[in-house]
């Protein structure tokens, strides 16, 4: 049995204990040696050890430990050790996993109201996105995961997502007929379909081998993901179209949250927001260095001009209608924010 599967089974077992006895994956001080943490919680992260979001998670863990005087210890498990993001979200509903950093795309599968924040070509720039997320609208959306048994803590940066492929994409017609890997997200699959390509839902850790085996012609992600998983070695063309800026969210299991007192909840919330600012700084630096590493390897960078990008945007009308049929006013509000 591999380590990831064992971790998932362990989390499931702990979740069952939570339902049966009310102890949500935590060690009570009475049951451990004096001076040990009152609670020990798992934090799920699917990125690599040195990735900005992983570092942000560790910053969060360090801050929580420090500000609770060692009463709460958070163990950050990276590299999808606890399972894929969709598996993690399911475990969090029951408290098997306490904290996580997940993509908005995965959350939107469980909480469809979140879809409006990740519509293709929604934001004109990074500054535009942060005006939305750091404002009143962002606070409103942090509360929406509660319908799935989760508590939104803070927003993490994930940059802009672009296409990368084994053959160049310079215009809309180049995408047609390609097979493109997407996240385990219906919306992202529909976006690719609207461009005339065939979407392939493949977990992040298997994208490299999918390129090697010829199962996909392309994928889409940000610079750090492209570089950190060495996808530039199997997909030499990187096309900057910035089709989506999909923010990421730090979340807490509601089952865990309800076991904490108000003062600990406030500490956790404050630490999450502080770690988010730290992660954004790391992200900006990592995005720059990742692009440099990829370019130094000899890849070809293609920038879509504004006229061609508008053609891509116009192809999204059915996607907007499908996922924002009841939220078109909000969609327009965000675009104009």
Could you tell me the mean pLDDT?
90
User: Which CATH class of the largest domain is shown?
Assistant: Alpha Beta
Helix content: 40-55%
Strand content: 15-25%
Q: Name the overall outline.
A: globular
Overall description:
The protein folds into two domains: 198 residues, Bacterial extracellular solute-binding protein, family 7 (D-Maltodextrin-Binding Protein, domain 2, 3-Layer(aba) Sandwich), CATH 3.40.190; 131 residues, Bacterial extracellular solute-binding protein, family 7 (D-Maltodextrin-Binding Protein, domain 2). The radius of gyration is 20 Å and the shape is globular. With 337 residues, the chain is of the alpha/beta class. Helix 1 runs parallel beside helix 3 and helix 2 packs antiparallel against helix 12. It is 45% helix and 18% strand. The longest helix is centred in the last third of the chain and has 35 residues. Helix 2 links the parallel strand 1 and strand 2.
Notable traits:
single chain; 337 residues; alpha/beta; D-Maltodextrin-Binding Protein, domain 2; 2 domains; 5-stranded mixed sheet; 4-stranded mixed sheet; 45% helix; 18% strand; globular; disordered N terminus
